[in-house]
Amino acid sequence: MAALEYGGATTLRHAFGSVLCFFILLLIGVLAFSIRLFSVIKYESVIHEFDPYFNYRVTQFLTKNGIYDFWNWFDDRTWYPLGRVIGGTVYPGLTLTAGSLWWLLNSLNIPLSVETVCVFTAPIFSANAAWATYLLTKEVRGTGAGLTAAALLAMVPSYISRSVAGSYDNEAVAIFALIFTFYLYVKTLNTGSLFYATLNALAYFYMVCSWGGYTFIINLIPMHVLLCIVTGRYSSRLYIAYAPLVVLGTLLASLVPVVGFNAVMTSEHFASFLVFIIIHVVALVYYIKGILSPKMFKVAVTLVVSIGLIVCLAVIAVLVALVASSPTKGWSGRSLSLLDPTYASKYIPIIASVSEHQPPTWPSYFMDINVLAFLVPAGIIACFLPLSDASSFVVLYIVTSVYFSGVMVRLMLVLAPAACIMSGIALSEAFNVFTRSIKFQLPGIPENSHSGAGDTTSGSATIKNDAVKSEKHSSTDKKEDSLKERPSKKNRKKEKEPVEKATIKSQVEKKLLALPLEMSVVAIFLLVLLGALYVVHCVWAAAEAYSAPSIVLTSYSHDGLHVFDDFREAYAWLRHNTEVDDKVASWWDYGYQTTAMANRTVIVDNNTWNNTHIATVGTAMSSPEKAAWEIFNSLDVKYVLVVFGGLVGYPSDDINKFLWMVRIGGGVFPHIREPDYLRDGQYRIDSQATSTMLNCLMYKLSYYRFVETDGKGFDRVRRTEIGKKYFKLTHFEEVFTTHHWMVRIYKLKPPKNRIRGKTKKSKAGSKTSSTTSSKRAGRRKNPWH
Amino acid sequence: MGFRFEFFLVLISILSAPVLSDLILSKVDRRIDLTSQVVRIASTLKVENTGNDVVSEVLLAFPDHQAKNMAYLKAASNVGKGRSKTSVSLSVKVVHPKGMPPALTLYSVTLPKGLGKKESFTLDILAVLTHSLQPFPEEITQADAQLVMFQDSAYYLSPYETKIQSLSVVLPSARYEFYTKIHNTKVVDSEIRYGPYENLPPFSYSPIVVHFENNQPFAVAQRLVREIEISHWGNVQVTEDYDIVHGGAQIKGGFSRIDYQARPYVRGASSFRHLIARLPPRAHSVYYRDQIGNISTSHLRGDSKKTELLIEPRYPMFGGWKTSFTVGYGLPLRDFLFESEGKRFLNFSFGCPMDGVVIDDLIVKVVLPEGSKDISVSVPFPVMQLQEIKYSHLDIVGRPVVVLEKTNVVPEYNLHFQVYYKFNNLSLLREPMMLVFGFFFLFVACIVYMHADMSISKSSASYLAKLQWDEVQAAVQQVQNNMNRCLAVHDKLEASLRDLSRTGDVQACKAARKAADGLLKELSKELKPLLGFLQSSPQAAQLWPKIQELVGKEKELQEKLMLKHSTVVDSYEKKSGGREIENRVASHQQKLTALRQEVDDLLDIISEI
To answer: What predicted TM-score, i.e. pTM, was given to this entire model?
Structure first.
């Protein structure tokens, strides 16, 4: 009877374990979703920032016009007069995901608006990403580590920064796709199942649809395959994991219009094909080795290697020649700036001008991954004991992503899952060691006292009871940070069996590994404290740092909360009170928002595909009024929008971005020279500023009649009085300024009648020659003539 | 254009002969209220019958340009005198009698009772005109005040002869540019008085123009859609979509924020910056937003009698500027839904809750709960009616929607209308039940899927392999159980030894030994076929060595234990000392512990696999 009960107990424990695991995963999903709702609760359910507005607009188009029109969509509301082929230049994964989500909900008669679906796509997918992390880590190092890693990922600040509710950006979906692709790769590697290999190719396809970061996958996996081959870990499982991925994955990737033939033409994909050839050679070698006797094999090897080397050299020489013939060596600008961190600042000011493309500072590591930064090394060590195919993959993943995050702040996002996996492994291993120590210390006392009676079984029973008891003790202590601590409790329970298996194998080793009881207890307490700190930091980051939608600003002062809703005020004004076909010029940052919120045609937007066009706008902004008017008029622009923070102290306004306009403009039109705008190498707008600076359009549009607000013209961002206070606009006319002056909209005055010009000319008389020459110069400067 | 046209009209009126009945208007008092953007003309007519026939209809004449903008026309008669005076509204309809001059629209008022000879009757007429104040100049700058023009006739335009009449025009302020002066005109403060004029023939017309300053908000809703959704769970959700335009003089030149901020009431006099909506009491969950998100500039005040919502558009509204927004709120159901004669009815106000907004096109949609039947509507004035279906949360057949449409709506239409329908209370439970059953069937499907064999081919290699693997697993499970039971028997034996050392009852110990022997034999018998199966099964090939080892170890353990048992029992029978027994058993004991550990390990490893 007792035996039956015992057998029943183990199965029951298994069942209980999996149910518990399921519920913990569910809770992790809820946590991942709800921690991202701070933005909705503190602000409102609204799309954030810049790029999400474009994605939102594309999704609206998709839901309104259907998938076929979407692929063929030529957008004439942007990059006027060039337009943009949206269907062929956009990564469609996110929009298709949200669009089908919307379609599904509406076909179930749940009338959610497209906006609501878009706002909540990111939190939903971060829950998915947490589950994918669980799966991946489970493949690498068991359920316990998986749960810990999932819980860590659910609230890692780096990922929260890109996936709060409303942050409707590619990365939100792409991180899930990235982790899931890695999971399927590792799963295939572990099982050698062709089924998973096919799924892997599909997941890779989804990733290609979602984000340009898919090149990371298609380079990391070949690197790992190569690593496995070099370290003598080649197996048929590896072949199955890799070969179908390259073939199917490349075929599928080239179906995505934005990738197309890039999937076989560019250097980013070259590594995968090279490794594809290598793995076949290796497979052939292993096969031949199997059918030949060792002696014959040696002969064959020498023969093949000598011929093969010659052929390979020839092929490589041809390839190198081909690649070297292209100016960028076949790499795209963004990839090159990853390989050579100084590339962008040297050659592509547009990439360098984006703040998220700057290298991160040390504090940003602490801000974005917090304590994980300390746990990662421990995780790497844990991955080496013992090193499996899967754990070597994770190690490679973290090493490469650490490098990339060091190049660009934005790629911290790729590092975050790796850091979570590593820390999950480290934490769960640490808990394993400590709880095991406690477990073997506690029964040590009764075992010694019961001498002789051969009471081992009851002894082991007490071991278990005590272990469970101690667990319960510790768990009640840590109820506060239950969400963090649950997976760890879980992993202790789950991990017990493999631990037993591992330890029992060599009893001596186990005894050596056991730490003193007090020390283990203290260490567990400290680990839990560390976890609690992490949770506190994450909640703070989610609530305070990363939830602001950036189109609504708030500030607290002694008389309460102030809301600065100027951007939407201006966009709403444009939407309702200008003609449908009017063109609005602004710096490219506001392009997406203008098309999405104001529904007006813009000259340039955040998809910076045409450098010349952006340079034209930059040139106009840094030219004097008349030249700027001519450029804008030739572009058919009716309104010019500038963002000005000087009244309320909003630092990221156009005056602060102005030097980039000068640089980008000067890069194409050399008559704009950066030194003209700087006084002794310093950028200033006060009375010391250069006259070029004080007469450029951006200065005038920003500070027009600004002095009348306080009589002095004190700029709160630059903390100085402006240089030129009283001036009039001759070619532009103020038509709208928002409540806090943050957005100012000017209208181009219609050209003057010729007759008046004639009288002026006769009056000016002697000046004619100089004006005509300057006019001609202006003509030449203007790229649209 | 207008002037000339009216002059032409005057000519006609003089030429055409009075042909109608013998009514005369013995006294006409008119008061034109121009203080807001709508024109309210209140007239009191005293009608006298001078003929012999009984007359039951009185004709009212309005020029076409006024009739076109006529939003509301009400005729009432006062009954009783003094305190008990009550007004009874009379029916008014458009008629086209013959022989009338063109460019006139005639309305006929049906009197409550026929008017006999020499009888007289007093009528109160209220006409409300929209879009009749013409901004002049049509474009003004931000700093200018808005000037508007109103045209009418100094004489009461009527198909009847008028004895005595007077007209007063009330302006919003005493600031006026111009008014037409004819005889007997005077100005008192912000009121212009014409008359009294006596004995005028039918269709007398003397155009007057008043040009004055009017900075009242000219808020015009070009389109307002009110959706009233009834939920029998206790809520009425109202959603109102506004397309607002400032209908006054267009703004010319730019808008300068600095001027506006410095002196908003001088340099922005013609604009309006907020609107006030008076919502029903106990309104909750109020929101105010537009296509691009929440609009933060609103204030809500409420008490038990009303809820007042002050909304500010995103930007101050100047002439010609447009905006659109949505206001939504929830109301308690019990305040608006009542039952009568087995039918339910919703009693709700028709017009817009905002003050002084003229609505060009008002659409009221009443969304009834799914499953409502026998729908009928009663509205106190003519509206266009149609029905549609709306699909909302978890609907199958859709919710019936009553659509009422009316153009040119002024606040006078803020009357209650009723929608009657039948609804079964049980239908309330349909949606929760749908959810319950939906999840129930989902779980059932999961259970079925987990237990059912879903493979397509019953003969494929992988399927057979899977089956075999299942069998192997079952067998291994049984082996494990068997082993565990063996171990349990061992434990019993050990326990009996301990009892022996405590009590010294050798017989009991022997009996335990016997029972254990029996059990173990049985178990090993059970084990045999299982082992045979596992050995033969190819699937178990990798498991087999472990299991073999396990069984071997267990056998060894069993033997050692038996040996120890018999040794101890023997020693007890020989009455050896405790120490001696311990010495003899010690060697066995060590081996036993080691073996036991190994067996446990093996069991764990197998269960892992």
So the answer is: 0.81
